[in-house]
Automatic annotation (TrEMBL), chain B:
<keyword id="KW-0812">Transmembrane</keyword>
<protein>
    <submittedName>
        <fullName>Uncharacterized protein</fullName>
    </submittedName>
</protein>
<feature type="transmembrane region" description="Helical">
    <location>
        <begin position="31"/>
        <end position="50"/>
    </location>
</feature>
<keyword id="KW-1133">Transmembrane helix</keyword>
<keyword id="KW-0472">Membrane</keyword>
UniProtKB/TrEMBL annotation, chain C:
<feature type="transmembrane region" description="Helical">
    <location>
        <begin position="267"/>
        <end position="287"/>
    </location>
</feature>
<feature type="transmembrane region" description="Helical">
    <location>
        <begin position="183"/>
        <end position="203"/>
    </location>
</feature>
<dbReference type="GO" id="GO:0009847">
    <property type="term" value="P:spore germination"/>
</dbReference>
<feature type="transmembrane region" description="Helical">
    <location>
        <begin position="145"/>
        <end position="163"/>
    </location>
</feature>
<feature type="transmembrane region" description="Helical">
    <location>
        <begin position="215"/>
        <end position="238"/>
    </location>
</feature>
<dbReference type="GO" id="GO:0016020">
    <property type="term" value="C:membrane"/>
</dbReference>
<protein>
    <submittedName>
        <fullName>Uncharacterized protein</fullName>
    </submittedName>
</protein>
<keyword id="KW-0813">Transport</keyword>
<dbReference type="Pfam" id="PF03845">
    <property type="entry name" value="Spore_permease"/>
</dbReference>
């Protein structure tokens, strides 16, 4: 009898292994593939999510203006949104509308609307970092319009918006900034300065009557954040300069330099390295030395300079070096003088090398940052001419 | 911790004691210790059921060792 | 139940995991708040106390009649007072293990099982540990031998997978604020190392007692090494923001995303944590049972395993109404508390025993 009770008790405890209280079946979850956060009136926030419903088939008629629906080969994608006084409130309101539980585990993308970014999204960051179900590796983007419009975009080349954005982040045009990086910058930089990629949605492009594919998101550059609020942005060209400074130029970037009117050379970068060296000289002047080294292959020569002559190669290289230097100076000027935000990481570099002076300058870092002069030195080597020996323009016409 | 759960725990515990062969033929001293421990558990159960914010030893230790607190405060 | 025999290697392995269980998870956050950029050095400084405590435990073991520290207390303070001192020490251990268990349960609860009642998490663990204790320390040692390599392997795996994401420049500037914050951080780590003293209850079970010191030394080295590695990995990953996350190691494991395949590795952290905590709670449970059994000269120690477990369950709830009390206790007063209990008090015992030994020696020589 005793043994029987024990055996029954032992078997009964196995039921505890199922985690009864926390079980959620797969077809009871709404997998979130992207979350958009917008500013609403009365200081409310609108959370819109793109949901992947794992069971395909059957077009669901969207009801109400807040549900956009479209069918994809692998299942239904549904966009739903709700407002609330805070992110958590909006999420619970959103949950009320859905018959399935929101599942954040696969989410990789947070898109903030421009208005929300300008108002400051530290509250939303608190929710995303504190809520245990949301992951720290998700990428953040700011969009020029409203995030909910981005949510509805079904890209042609990718399965859904999240994939499109993540893949786009991996290209040389932009970088990916995830929650962990933002948190690091918030803690370590003196005025919470950081950058977040800036994207455009299709609607804006088609308004300009461009003939591009209407369903692909574009990168427009980087936004600059200071003290938790977006204060401006860098366009693609200035972003490029910013990448040169912060050693974020990816291989396969293409550089073009103008030799003379209508004569250009293009180089495909294979390696680039930027080093920043902080210096505080005797008189207390703060300077930064920027050394850029890069290598590339010639991919187009539409000029009169001939690659087969060494001194003309030197000329080409000098042209590129000047071009890069100009880009860097332009970007730095914008970042330092107009936006006065240290998104280039000067604070960290000075802190490592001159901790004592940095500790004093920390409290008024904007002013100190504005005055830091950067001496740029570029060294480019154009290694290979590609498959053509002489440029086509130089083939004598007979 | 809710009351039904606590009763379930006690049920489990006493059930185990009943079916366990080692609780028979206990010497007087051992039985005393077992009973003391069980009584202490009962007291705690009742205490927590009545007042979830029972004064707890962590509080007492915090108060007792409060002079040592500044040692481990961040220097900031 | 109390007479199994284990080898000193097994003891070292058990004590290694015993100390590491809670530290790897909680430590980076607390030490970053105190020592900032120098938090990775704190285990190296804590190592010193580790050696001291191992030496102290061994010395106390040598000084104890019949190898039981309870007997030592009785012979120092008299039978009645000695028992009181022993009971107080056992209550202290109850408190510490309850805080530890509560911490474990809160971690599992708040990160994985949001809706499960905590009593299920604590209860199932205690039932398992109680069963292991009832069968004797040999069982705990052997399960430890199986689990500890698995735990260490997975911890190392996570640390290695993190390597591409690490940025060593986070560690500079070195000693930015001088030695003060570093010493504070290492005090907290000392608190964890001091738990090694519990080995004194287990020394009587070791077969090859001459090797205890050698393996104790290696145990401390191993603990320091793993702590150092995980501290470095976490800090090189997130920098100073480690102080703002409650569980930086979990966050680091969640961060791993390799080739879009190795993702969502926090389940590994949970598995490692549960296995490690099983060993930690079993050891404490055994030590408490042995303490009570020795103090009251019980004939059948198996009987009290279940009542101790039941009491432990309720003490876990009694110890703090919510997570914040427990967590802020560990970060501050808890360190002083545990250092007093596991370092100062045994040191006192040791000194008293040695002094008494001198007097006895004087007494016999003058005769």
């Amino acid at each position: 009898m005793r043994h029987l009770i024990r055996v029954i008790a032992a078997i009964a405890t196995v039921t505890l292994l199922t985690g009864c209280w926390d079980r959620i079946e797969v077809n009871d979850i709404a997998i979130i593939l992207g979350a958009g956060i917008d500013q609403e009136k009365n200081n409310r926030v609108k959370l819109s999510v793109e949901i992947f419903l794992p069971s395909p088939g059957g077009n669901e008629a969207g009801d109400g203006q807040e549900q956009m629906d479209s069918q994809n080969k692998n299942g239904n994608i549904l966009v739903s949104s709700a407002t609330g006084t805070s992110m958590a409130d909006a999420m619970s309101n959103l949950q009320e509308r859905l018959s399935r539980r929101l599942y954040w585990g696969h989410n990789n993308v947070y898109v903030f609307g421009k208005e929300r970014a300008e108002r400051g999204f530290n509250d939303d960051l608190d929710f995303f970092l504190r809520y245990v179900r949301a992951r720290e590796r998700t990428n953040i983007y700011v969009t020029q319009g409203r995030a909910i419009e981005v949510m509805g975009v079904i890209p042609r080349l990718d399965q859904n918006l999240m994939e499109a954005l993540t893949e786009l982040s991996k290209t040389e045009v932009s970088i990916d900034v995830d929650l962990k990086k933002v948190m690091e910058q918030i803690v370590e930089t003196p005025e919470q300065t950081y950058t977040v990629p800036y994207i455009l949605t299709s609607a804006v492009m088609s308004e300009k009557k461009h003939l591009r594919n209407a369903n692909v998101p574009y990168f427009k550059g980087l936004t600059i954040f200071k003290k938790g609020q977006m204060i401006g942005s860098l366009n693609n060209e200035l972003t490029h300069g910013y990448f040169w400074i912060t050693n974020q130029i990816k291989p396969s970037t293409i550089l073009t330099a103008t030799v003379a009117k209508e004569e250009t050379i293009a180089v495909h970068l294979t390696m680039s390295k930027s080093k920043l060296r902080p210096k505080i000289d005797g008189s207390g002047k703060w300077t930064m030395d920027l050394l850029i080294e890069c290598e590339g292959n010639l991919i187009q020569n539409a000029s009169q300079l001939d690659y087969s002559k060494p001194e003309q190669i030197m000329q080409m290289e000098v042209l590129f070096e000047q071009m890069i230097k100009d880009k860097v100076d332009k970007s730095l000027n914008m970042i330092q003088q107009k936006y006065k935000s240290d998104i280039v990481g000067y604070s960290k570099l000075f802190r490592r090398k001159y901790p004592k002076q940095w500790a004093i300058a920390k409290s008024s870092w904007s002013e100190t940052f504005q005055k830091i002069e950067t001496n740029t030195e570029v060294n480019i080597q154009i290694r290979r001419p590609g498959a053509l020996v002489k440029q086509i323009n130089n083939i004598p016409m007979e | 911790m809710s009351i039904p759960l606590m009763m379930l725990v006690w049920l489990f515990a006493l059930g185990f004691g009943y079916t366990s062969g080692s609780w028979r033929g206990l010497q007087k001293r051992d039985a005393w210790i077992v009973c003391t421990l069980l009584l202490l558990s009962l007291a705690l159960t009742v205490g927590i059921a009545i007042n979830p914010q029972l004064p707890n030893p962590t509080e007492w230790v915090e108060q007792a060792l409060s002079p040592l607190k500044p040692l481990l405060e961040p220097v900031n | 139940m109390l007479n199994g025999k284990i080898s000193s290697v097994q003891l070292a392995v058990i004590m290694f995991q015993f100390v590491l269980s809670s530290t790897v998870l909680l430590m980076p956050s607390i030490t970053t708040r105190l020592s900032e950029k120098d938090m990775w050095l704190t285990p190296l400084l804590g190592m010193g106390l580790g050696f001291l405590v191992v030496w102290l435990a061994y010395k106390l073991f040598k000084l104890s009649p019949e190898g039981s520290i309870v007997r030592l207390m009785e012979s120092l303070f008299g039978t009645f007072l000695g028992k009181i001192v022993s009971i107080l020490f056992i209550l202290f251990q109850f408190h510490i293990v309850a805080i530890s268990t509560r911490d474990y349960a809160e971690f599992i609860e708040s990160n994985f099982f949001l809706e499960t009642p905590i009593v299920v998490i604590i209860g199932t663990m205690l039932i398992l540990c109680g069963w292991a204790v009832r069968r004797g320390f040999e069982v705990i040692a052997r399960t430890g031998q199986i689990f500890v390599p698995i735990i260490t392997l997975f911890t190392v795996l996570i640390l290695i997978l993190l390597i591409p994401e690490l940025n060593p420049l986070h560690l500079l500037p070195f000693m930015e604020r001088g030695a003060g914050p570093l010493l504070q951080g290492s005090l907290v780590v000392d608190g964890w190392f001091s738990q090694l003293l519990l080995a004194v209850y287990i020394f009587p079970l070791v077969r090859d007692q001459d090797n205890i010191r050698k393996w104790g030394f290696w145990c401390v080295i191993g603990i320091t090494f793993v702590m150092l590695a995980s501290n470095l990995a976490v800090f090189m990953l997130v920098g100073e923001s480690a102080g703002y996350y409650t569980y930086p190691v979990l966050m680091a494991a969640r961060y791993i995303a390799y080739a879009e395949f190795f993702e969502h590795l926090e389940a590994i952290v949970m598995m490692v944590w549960v296995l490690g905590e099983y060993i930690k709670i079993s050891v404490y449970y055994y030590v408490i049972t042995r303490g009570i059994s020795d103090t009251f000269r019980l004939k059948k120690p198996e009987v009290i395993v279940m009542p101790v477990g039941l009491l432990l369950l309720f003490v876990c709830f009694w110890v703090g109404p919510d997570f914040q009390t427990v967590s802020s206790f560990i970060a501050n007063t808890g360190t002083s508390y545990i250092l007093i209990g596991f370092v100062l008090f045994p040191l006192l015992l040791c000194i008293l025993a040695v002094i008494r030994g001198w007097f006895k020696g004087l007494g016999t020589s003058t005769k």
